[in-house]
């Protein structure tokens, strides 16, 4: 399994990474949300400036997660699966998640009540094959990406993700 280098600022991404897209979250407009391709991986990068209220010091905080590129199509499939009634082949009653191996990596897609902030639901994508950067190999802190409902359905994330999935499926990434 390829483990891409970690980087902490968008101006420092490795030469082997190709920026394939970026999107602004209208509900968190100060955040960078960038999507890179590294070999057969999708690398998501989210970062923003944070100011220490006591000292005034500004730090750039970032988070990076890796998934097989096939996750682009898989997430669209999962959204459809979660929206389909159980009697028509959708998610079984009482279940809130689905786990599947995608290109050799174990992915988990979950419906949650406070995803990306309080007072709204959403989905969380986790790669159970990859521990968060900086964590011990025995940690249960997995790399992930959040799909808050407001951003997904009202902020353009769904259309953005579908467009990336279409590019992936047509070999254009």
Describe the protein.
The chain is of the alpha+beta class. The protein has a single domain (10-169), classed as 2-Layer Sandwich (Secreted effector protein pipB2 fold). Helix content is 18%, strand content 38%. The protein is built from three helices and eight strands, in the order ββββαββββαα. The protein has helices at residues 71-83, 149-154, 157-169; strands at residues 18-22, 32-38, 41-51, 58-68, 97-102, 105-112, 122-131, 142-148. The strands form two sheets. It has a four-stranded antiparallel sheet, with no helix packed on it. Strands 5-6-7-8 form a four-stranded antiparallel sheet. Helix 1 (71-83) packs across helix 3 (157-169). The two termini are 20 Å apart.
Keywords, separated by commas or semicolons:
alpha+beta; four-stranded antiparallel beta sheet; 18% helix; 38% strand
């Amino acid at each position: 399994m390829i483990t891409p280098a970690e980087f902490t600022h968008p101006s420092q991404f490795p030469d082997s990474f190709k920026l394939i897209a970026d999107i602004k979250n209208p509900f968190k407009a100060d955040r960078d949300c960038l999507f890179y391709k590294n070999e057969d991986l999708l690398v998501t990068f989210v970062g923003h400036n944070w100011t220490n209220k006591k000292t005034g010091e500004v730090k750039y905080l970032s988070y990076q997660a890796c998934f097989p590129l096939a996750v682009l199509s898989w997430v669209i499939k999962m959204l459809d699966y979660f929206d389909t009634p159980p009697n028509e082949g959708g998610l079984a009653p009482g279940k809130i998640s689905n786990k599947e191996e995608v290109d050799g990596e174990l992915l988990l897609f979950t419906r949650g009540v406070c995803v990306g902030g309080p007072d709204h639901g959403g989905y969380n994508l986790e790669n159970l094959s990859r521990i968060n950067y900086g964590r011990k190999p025995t940690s249960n802190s997995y790399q992930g990406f959040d799909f808050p409902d407001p951003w997904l359905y009202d902020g353009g994330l769904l259309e953005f993700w579908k467009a990336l999935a279409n590019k992936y499926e047509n070999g254009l990434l």
